[in-house]
# Entry
Amino acid sequence: MAGQEEERGDTKKKFSIFDLPDVPMGQLPDHLQLHRTRVLCNNDAPIHTESVQYSGAYATVGVDNSLRFDHFRNNFRVEVVRLTEEDMEFDMVGIDAAIANAFRRILIAELPTMAIEKVLIANNTSVVQDEVLAHRLGLIPIGVDPRHFEYLSENDQPNERNTIVFKLHVSCKRGSPRITVKSDELKWLPNGSELVKESTPSDSASKPETYTSFSCSQETIPEFAKNPIAPKYPDIIIAKLGPGQEIELEAHAVKGKGKTHAKWSPVATAWYRMFPEVVLLEEVEDDLAEELKSKCPVDVFDIEDLGKG
Amino acid sequence: MEHGSFGDESVATFSLNEEDHTLANAVRFTLNQDPRVRFCGYSIPHPSDARVNVKVQTTGDPAKEVLKDACQDLMQMCEHIRNTFDKTVGELKASEAVKKKNSHSQEKAMDIDSQESDSESEESESN
# Structure
């Protein structure tokens, strides 16, 4: 009996389906490999859009789908397509959409920047309402490294380590033409607020209390001594003033993140897409090839000489 | 982080405060690639609450440890991506600077900001 069992076990092993020549061990059949590595853009809809993440997904064909860190380490690479001061495009090869998307989300919502959060308006006789003006100021990008600053918590006093103060004081004289107020009119106040709180007792000999409590000038901080803080672009239109109109205000910028408000988002937008691959189903030659080439507005196709002979 | 399992350590739901798809989807990705994981998934119970629930079911190991390892994997991955990115961008800037120097040797070589390479941030882990 026992011998029979053994024999049966042996024959089973001998005729295991995995030993057949068309079942390649250790690598996926072509169609599964295609599912795993490509999103197909079909006529009706894209298919295989979700990556197969489960480690045991291909266990039945003997393929390990678990994370092999050394494999990732050896195969991951970055290729920069375009890089300018404000614009960057790069390829990440050998990464899953889950991770690429996480980077996109982090770029949009979780990287801190400085933006104007509080606006103290002393005088505004322009046609732009106070709240609209404050909103516009908030959206102005400020050219400063946020790593030099701390977050301003609810109970914190605004000080030189968490607040940047700007002053805006412009007026249009009577009889003169209208003027356009641009972001270069925002003047950095390294010593903090200049507006005195009304509640300050008049009898005290100490200096009057303002809306910030800076212990030293921000100009003494070495990072800002060489490059004074200013809006990133000098030509952003804030408001237009007619004759006799005036704006006088103080804007306090603090550190924040894009998830709180888009004004703290460091990017205009950040996006990713799958790397495109165009497969021609048949050889296209001669006039047809010319036609195909001219039809694509972004010059995807090019014509190659066929080797003669 | 809250721990929602009693008795059986191999099944647990973790509630992560102040997190969203960014972390949860990435952690799900690394969890799923761990052979010890039988099932994992995440949900956001209410879109107005900054909270995700990550469910982990393992083949026997404590779910807590498996989640920790997944976070560790993710951190290592991000670190490697950051290093590769910094290296590539650094090389590109260096080669561009050399090109510029060669083509406009009389012009002052442009001072290229190195700020941009910091645009990739690391994942924040809240254990």
